[in-house]
């Protein structure tokens, strides 16, 4: 629930500005969004939690005893810490990503480079690279975005200047 969020910034973060990113996912249905503070200046997080708790109790437990106390769980709770750790994990953030294709182009002082990458569940499944002496197949199987171990793999297979690989990977990670 948005109490007093910066809606313009939120909109910027949610919009795909990369026209070169093509997904197979279902397009989201746009809906109007507003801050609760625009309807009531007195709304706070605690008041919101109280109201939701009250509405939940009335809907699902109208005749049962209910302790109205909402407990804030701090860090140090094993269950909460495990859940937070899972939410920070790569598997949670990227492992269920639907298949998509990302086309990228860049001009370097040493030439034009393009990359056509297909990824599914956060793993590169296909890759074509032109303009730098790197076989695209060397990136297949790597994690999209981080390209872990890409330097050592590419430096072994690349026959051109090593600084071209570094510039290429820096650019590619930034674009991802």
UniProtKB/TrEMBL annotation:
Domain spans labelled Lipoate protein ligase C-terminal: 97-131
Catalytic activity field: L-lysyl-[lipoyl-carrier protein] + (R)-lipoate + ATP = N(6)-[(R)-lipoyl]-L-lysyl-[lipoyl-carrier protein] + AMP + diphosphate + H(+)
Entry-linked InterPro entries: aa-tRNA-synth_II/BPL/LPL, BPL_LPL_catalytic, Lipoate_protein_ligase_C, LipoylTrfase_LipoateP_Ligase
Keywords (A to Z) from UniProt: ATP-binding, Ligase, Nucleotide-binding
GO cellular component assignments: mitochondrion
Pfam (any one): Lip_prot_lig_C
Gene Ontology terms, MF aspect: ATP binding; lipoate-protein ligase activity; lipoyltransferase activity
Pathway: Protein modification; protein lipoylation via exogenous pathway; protein N(6)-(lipoyl)lysine from lipoate: step 2/2; Protein modification; protein lipoylation via exogenous pathway; protein N(6)-(lipoyl)lysine from lipoate: step 1/2
Catalytic EC class: ligase
One GO term of the biological process aspect: protein lipoylation
EC number: 6.3.1.20
Annotated ranges, domain BPL/LPL catalytic: 1-57
Reported function: Catalyzes both the ATP-dependent activation of exogenously supplied lipoate to lipoyl-AMP and the transfer of the activated lipoyl onto the lipoyl domains of lipoate-dependent enzymes.
Family of this protein: Belongs to the LplA family.
UniProt cross-references to PANTHER family, sorted A to Z: LIPOATE-PROTEIN LIGASE, LIPOYLTRANSFERASE 1, MITOCHONDRIAL
Record's protein name: Putative lipoate-protein ligase A
Species this chain originates from: Rhizoctonia solani
């Amino acid at each position: 629930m948005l109490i007093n969020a910066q809606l313009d910034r939120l909109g910027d973060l949610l919009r795909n500005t990369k026209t070169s990113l093509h997904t197979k996912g279902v397009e989201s249905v746009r809906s109007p969004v507003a801050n609760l503070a625009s309807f009531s200046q007195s709304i706070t997080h605690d008041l919101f939690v109280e109201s939701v708790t009250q509405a939940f109790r009335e809907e699902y437990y109208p005749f049962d005893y209910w302790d109205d106390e909402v407990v804030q769980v701090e860090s140090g709770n094993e269950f909460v810490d495990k859940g937070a750790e899972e939410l920070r994990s790569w598997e949670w953030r990227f492992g269920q990503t639907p298949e998509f294709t990302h086309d990228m182009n860049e001009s370097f002082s040493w030439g034009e480079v393009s990359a056509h990458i297909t990824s599914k569940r956060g793993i590169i499944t296909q890759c074509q690279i032109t303009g730098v002496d790197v076989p695209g197949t060397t990136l297949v199987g790597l994690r999209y975005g981080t390209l872990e171990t890409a330097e050592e793999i590419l430096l072994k297979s690349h026959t051109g200047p090593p600084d071209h690989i570094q510039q290429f990977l820096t650019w590619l990670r930034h674009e991802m």
